[in-house]
Amino acid sequence: MSKHGRVLVAMSGGIDSSVTSVLLHEQGYEVVGITMKTWDYVSSGGGKKETGCCSLDSINDARSIAVSKGFPHYILDIRGEFVEHVIDDFVGEYLAGRTPNPCVKCNTHIKWEALLKRADMLECEFIATGHYANIREENNRYVISKGLDNTKDQSYVLWGVAQECLKRTMFPIGNFKKTEIKRMAIDMGFIDLAKKSESYEICFIPDNDYRSFLKRKLPETEKLSGGFFVNRSGNVLGKHKGYPFYTIGQRKGLEVAVGHPLYVTEIHPETNTVVLGTEAELERHEIWVRDINLVKYPSLQEPTKAVTRIRYKDPGKPSILEQHGSKMKVTFHQAAKAAAPGQSAVFYESDDVIGGGFIEKS
Asked: Which residue, 115, 182, 176, is CA-closest to 151?
């Protein structure tokens, strides 16, 4: 047994998790690699080549790293749980007129739970992932903070991870930039890995066409057959192709001409209508956030200053947080645009994640 401890590393076959595993191995940890099979795109009816962390090539890449460094590697099939907690939620959110956050759901309900369960079985004290984020203990709390590389920071998708999970979690590459990780991979002899292209799509939609995915999952659903675009007054502006195919803030692909730009401002599944409006009508000075998980503090007893991000690439806006049980009222100093119900709102104090939750319909 290593004096540093035994750590289970989630290995997707990509450069970040591979370098993570080797770094820990070289630091003297007893590393056990594990690759989670979450989705089988080919059998789901997709027409393009399977890519990303679920592909056979990625699994083989992860295994080859482990073999080359002499540590064990396992494959964990969690496709059943993934369908139940991520795929079904993804489809259900679009049918409810919301925009889902599958990566947050997967991290919160699937990956960490599956990793910790297997870590216990393999007698591993810790788990590690290749996320660009950091974690520390402060005031009896395990606090997530931004990764050093602002262009790759992944703290936004980690707000839902519970304290008992964070207690055993390591983010070894959080204080490195992506350019440094690529250089490390080359120095480690993994030249092909350093050249490997990254996937930015949802892992179970490698062709990046979620509309076709919904059609395959719901071939007989009348909600995908179309309805009406209306304005705030209820006047019909045209026909849409199915309300789940639209998201708040969308401008392209509406095929409605009124002499000025229009945006999706609201989605109403109960009437099968999509409301279009001006850019100004996308602005919100206040949102409510449900199912909150606080990371840095057990609770917020008084109004708290924060920078709130309402999408992954959003730089965030200064705001005031007021906790009401499992919900958070967020008041922005300057209006935020296109706060899409179902997306995550994540609250920051400097680089630290205060917590986050899912945006409710206004």
From this structure: 176
